[in-house]
Amino acid sequence: MESNLTLDEVTEQSMVFHEDDDVFIAEEIRDSLDFQQEPIMMLEPKKGLMFDSEDDVVRFYNGYAKRKGFSVVRRTTRLSEDNKLNYFTLACSRQGKAQYSSNNSFKPNPSTSMQCPAKSNFSRRGEKFCITSVTIDHNHLISPSKARFLRCHKKLDLHAKRTLELNDQAGIRVNKNFGSLVMEAGGYDKLEYGEKECRNYLQETRRLKLGAGDANAVYQYFLDMQSKDPHFFHVMDVDEDGRLRNVFWADARSRATYESFCDVITFDTTYLTNKYKMLFAPFVGVNHHGESVLLGCGLLSNEDTDTFVWLFKSWLCCMSNNPPNAIIKDKCKAMQNAIK
């Protein structure tokens, strides 16, 4: 890629955005004419390179790491007396000594750290940041073609986020939602993210939209049911911020019915409520008349493995930890993993 920018244009345009590579590079060139001759988007970290802000530094170094095929971590950080950032280091994520954590000394957990020396140090110069020292070489193999598999480079673009949200609102499952992006891009290798990143994004965007009054109303309803029916069972799952995520409940009739008809149950999450976009997950069995009987219900904020594990554990706890002989389910992989 060649650059037709003049020196004046380079100086005036302190930030350059390249949409295809998703790389932001901020620069101001002061001392070396050699910098001026290099294609702007292909610059490597060099001593004396200036940036307008900390964010520009991070975008620049992440873009460089993505092109080279390694991931980045922040290391040393120093603050001034007025709590301003004065100095920090961005380094290869494989820097540092290997640390193993395992109860079995013969099978230690693997570590990716191998004291890689590659890093760049940045110091404040007024309101800007300057590269003060650089180490380019790595002591391990790096692969530009595999950079998209590294966690720090797996990012959803605005188009992908919008597509995921629209499809999710239409009730399309995450695996099919992700599949539409794969088809649009022309293959898995054309995407810089995977299905896991899509699931995580949707999990954040579609947290249970229960207001404080709604969540409290659910809790009060459960307490009221329990006062009328001592065998009424309910569990409410909240996140680290105290926000309601998932709910499970079963009345005395459902629990008693399961004791007699626990051979085979069906489980499905294809139902959606309109108001809160929550998955409705009923456990259904069959009685001796061939009729469907309800054995418990859940409202879920997500379809990932952790959510299904929580739901199945809650249901088994409700049913005295007596698992059925068989479960008929759909082809959801996360559900399959949870059942295993």
Automatic annotation (TrEMBL):
Residues annotated as domain FAR1: 59-142
Domain of life the protein comes from: Eukaryota
InterPro entries: FAR1_DNA_bnd_dom, MULE_transposase_dom
Pfam annotation, one family: MULE
MULE transposase domain span: 264-340
Protein name, UniProt field: Protein FAR1-RELATED SEQUENCE
Species: Hordeum vulgare subsp. vulgare (Domesticated barley)
